[in-house]
């Protein structure tokens, strides 16, 4: 049992970090649930992100990834914005701060629409496609829909939009094919990226945030 004695401190530290993350996410999840019940009536309105003196340092880092960042983004219908910068410059961190997945150690982040709602209350206006898209031990259809009630027509349209139609047609069981696990079909990094984009499109939210969306395409 010596291994247990030595592993307990690290396991306790990991549990503590997860509990802190859960506490941060709980208000966000609750706000999303309330907005779903309200029908999301304000989600089509213009929005504005304002970051003032935002600083964020990762737990194991000695230097901040973002240091006193000042940024204002006006989000209008059909607008496209591209944030560029060197690797490790904080682009992914910025997106996660905007989504409320990370909290800055200093500074403020304001998200406003016509109703002056804050970031947490408006997070349901945004879909996010991360750099690394996770798959679950399930069918391709369930991996794309993530439990949403989606019609066959909607699913077919989105798969066509992201360029997965031919991929699905080549699978032995089509959308019913397992795509993860011991018996799952291999999915390339490019296909994973497209699955992530398909998930975001099915959410039908007015803002789409993509982290390195063309890295594997």
TrEMBL record:
<dbReference type="GO" id="GO:0005524">
    <property type="term" value="F:ATP binding"/>
</dbReference>
<dbReference type="GO" id="GO:0034040">
    <property type="term" value="F:ATPase-coupled lipid transmembrane transporter activity"/>
</dbReference>
<feature type="domain" description="ABC transporter">
    <location>
        <begin position="71"/>
        <end position="215"/>
    </location>
</feature>
<dbReference type="InterPro" id="IPR003439">
    <property type="entry name" value="ABC_transporter-like_ATP-bd"/>
</dbReference>
<dbReference type="GO" id="GO:0016887">
    <property type="term" value="F:ATP hydrolysis activity"/>
</dbReference>
<protein>
    <submittedName>
        <fullName>Alpha-factor-transporting ATPase</fullName>
    </submittedName>
</protein>
<dbReference type="InterPro" id="IPR027417">
    <property type="entry name" value="P-loop_NTPase"/>
</dbReference>
<dbReference type="InterPro" id="IPR039421">
    <property type="entry name" value="Type_1_exporter"/>
</dbReference>
<dbReference type="Pfam" id="PF00005">
    <property type="entry name" value="ABC_tran"/>
</dbReference>
